[in-house]
Amino acid sequence: MSIKVGINGYGTIGKRIADAISKFKEFKIIGIVKTKPDYAAYIALNKGYNIYTLPRNTDLFREKGIEVSGTIEDLLREADLVIDATPGGYGAKYKELYLKYNVPAIFQGGEKPGIAEISFNAICNYEETIGKKYVRVVSCNTTGLSRIICLLNEEFGVRKVRATIVRRGADPKEDKRGPINSIKLDPPSIPSHHALDVKTIIPWLDIETVAVAVPTTLAHLHVVRIYLKQSVSRDRVIEALSKTKRIMFIDANKTNINSTAKLVEYMRDLGRYRYDFPENIVWLDSLKVSSDEVLIIQAIHQESIVIPENIDAVKAMFNLESDKWKAVKETDEVLELIGGVL
Fold it and tell me: Which residues contact 143 (CB under 8 A, 6 or more apart)?
């Protein structure tokens, strides 16, 4: 019997979650919630998704010729689970409705950690999430950092992490964000919120992060220095990070992919829908290992990196798979992640 999933929010993350959920036989999307009758609503209808909205907005949709299946409360009466992909801060407001209808929920990283029982990253704390009712999948940057930290910690132990995060200024569709002609300290203080967010998953970790926002929309870029509990070789680090297809290595010397622009073009040529890359893209040329110190430069696609984790969160909450690596492997295969070295 399929788990009936409702998705509240059909923007950058919500539409990707919907497409991903649709690929799994264990899940059935019973509807998506939208508040505005814009182009995304027409796309959702064309994909066969039932549209629900707020009670006060039903007439707005009908005026645009978009038939709605009901209100968000109608959706919640049917759903076994709601995945909240609303803008940051709205999830806390909607949680009252989820509680009213006793519906388990997954929230995104834009919400404060206290909204859920646990902050989630599949590689770091899958087992701890089994059976939880309210789960928060951490943000794109936190997901990218947590994956490599936990992979290396499982194999070698991690003492501390120091990371510089070069954030994209906006997503491609966002025409009201910036910076346009500046490099912005985001924030000026240290640590940035990313270190605090990583610690919601790995509370014992000594981590400091600094972040700047730059005028690009394609991806974030991380420069990460990880200090291990033992001396290791470069080959062993590559082997540890290769345990999952969620890490992909790019050889810039061989491929000439030495920028996020070329990386996006590669994904387009590969036929990736929306040019998404849910993998951490680690430049092999930048991977330097000196005794117990590992230096990595990686690209993080802010629009898609959290999608596999949302799938795994459902699996853990409903105990569809108790083995973390089996869950991760199956998700990666269905979503056609690449991994390996290019």
Answer: 109, 121, 137, 300, 305, 306, 309
DSSP calls for 241-290:
HTTSTTEEEE-HHHH---SHHHHHHHHHHHT-GGG---SEEEEGGG-EEE
CA distance 206 to 208: 7
Owner of token pair 């966002």:
174
Which of 140, 166, 237, 263 is labelled catalytic? 140
| Residue 140 designated active-site | yes
Q: Are 29 and 18 contacting, i.e. CB atoms less than 8 angstroms apart?
A: yes
The domain containing residue 217 runs over which residues?
140-305
pLDDT, tens digit (0-9, with 9 covering 90-100), for 87-143: 999 999 999 999 999 999 999 999 999 999 999 999 999 999 999 999 999 999 999
Closest by CA position to 314, among listed 122, 72, 148, 31 = 122
Domain co-membership, 30 together with 123: yes
How many domains, in total, are found in the chain? Answer: 2
Q: Is the dihedral of CA 233, 235, 238, 243 positive or negative?
A: negative
Tell me, yes or no, whether 8 and 21 share the same domain. yes
Determine which helix (DSSP H) or strand (DSSP E) holds 196, and give its type and residue range.
helix 193-201
* Strand-pair partners of 105: 82, 134
96 domain-assigned: yes
CB atoms within 10 A of CB 212: 18
Pairing of strands 206-214, 220-228: unpaired
- Does one domain contain both 43 and 191? no
C-alpha to C-alpha distance for 209 and 57, rounded to whole angstroms: 42
Q: Domain with 261 in it: what CATH number?
A: 3.30.360.10
Residue 224: per-residue pLDDT: 98
Given a contact cutoff of 8 angstroms between Cβ atoms, the answer to whether 194 and 209 are in contact is yes
Question: What is the rounded CA–CA span in Å between residue 138 and residue 151?
Answer: 17
Q: Say yes or no to pLDDT of 178 above 90.
A: no
Please indicate, yes or no, whether residues 120 and 173 belong to a single structural domain of this protein: no
Label residue 82 exposed, middle or buried (CB < 10 Å: 0-12, 13-18, 19+).
buried
Question: What is the C-alpha to C-alpha distance for residues 47 and 40, in angstroms, rounded to an integer?
Answer: 11
Residue 340 falls inside a structural domain: no
